[in-house]
Amino acid sequence: MQVNDIHPLRPDKEEFIHIQERLAKQIDVSRPLRLEDLRTVAGVDLAYAGEGDSETGFCHIAVFDTATMRVMERSGAVGEIDMPYSPGFLTFRELPLIVEAAGKLETVPDLFLFDGNGILHPRRMGIASHASFILGKPAVGVAKTYFRIAETEYKEPGWEKGSYTDITVGRETLGRAVRTSAGVKPVFVSPGNGIDLDSATDLVLSLTGPESRLSIPVREADISTRRMRREWEKEQK
């Protein structure tokens, strides 16, 4: 893995695409992986405050013991965001803070769950795919909203928990719309790297409780990043 994959020397779309296409050739989404195979799972999320040249990012990683589903370690990172948002290139905004937060962990999680996409991406390189190479562990994307790719739309799954519909581009299935709780909006699951789609779907369902449509690790990270942002905003007043 190259440092430029996190901090490109030439931060423009041409270089971003080059990095994504190079890494995409190395993705493996054929590996079955069960919850029983994992001792720890981490949820990762980011939140933002401000806009334009004064934007600040907040990253939180919550590591869970899969046997007890209790948080065993946390880490976070706060920093200025110097890259404007551009669809398809969100990873390059978020990776520096993710790497900083992950570097503070004493526990190396067996798998990372991201609030975002894996191969459900125009170049198969959403945040879960890209970060998997940097972190050296399997990763899964669990997005709250649908990132539309190649003019495709997803079909609503059934209303019961565990229902899903495949999201296919051409002949390739890139992800699924999954109903993690009965009667709630679906989440969008896609493998990032080091795990297959069926395993990713099963893991997300197994790690989702009745209190939210989000998997427990991602929900915890989501709550924590918003708490970090509120505390930071109070300090700025």
Report on this model:
- By secondary structure, the protein is an alpha+beta fold.
- It has one domain: archaeoglobus fulgidus dsm 4304 superfamily (archaeoglobus fulgidus dsm 4304 fold).
- The protein is built from five helices and eight strands.
- It has helices at 13-24, 91-103, 127-135, 197-206, 216-236; strands at residues 40-49, 56-65, 70-80, 111-114, 139-143, 164-169, 172-178, 187-193.
- The chain has an eight-stranded mixed beta sheet, with helices on both faces.
- Helix 2 runs parallel beside helix 3.
- The model has no long low-confidence stretch (mean pLDDT 93).
Given as residue ranges, the uncertain stretches (5+ residues, pLDDT < 50) are none
CATH topology: archaeoglobus fulgidus dsm 4304 fold
Write the CATH homologous superfamily.
archaeoglobus fulgidus dsm 4304 superfamily
Beta-strand fraction estimate: 25-35%
The succession of helices and strands, N to C, reads HEEEHEHEEEEHH
What fraction, in percent, of the residue positions are helical?
Answer: 25-40%
CATH architecture: 2-Layer Sandwich
Estimated radius of gyration: 17 Å
Strand segment count = 8
* Count of runs of 4 or more consecutive helical residues: 5
Biggest sheet features: 8 strands, mixed
Shape: globular
- Spatial strand order of the main sheet: 3-2-1-4-5-8-7-6
User: What structural class do you assign from the helix and strand content?
Assistant: alpha+beta
Q: What number of domains?
A: 1
Q: N- to C-terminal separation?
A: 41 Å
Multimeric organization: single chain
Overall CATH class: Alpha Beta
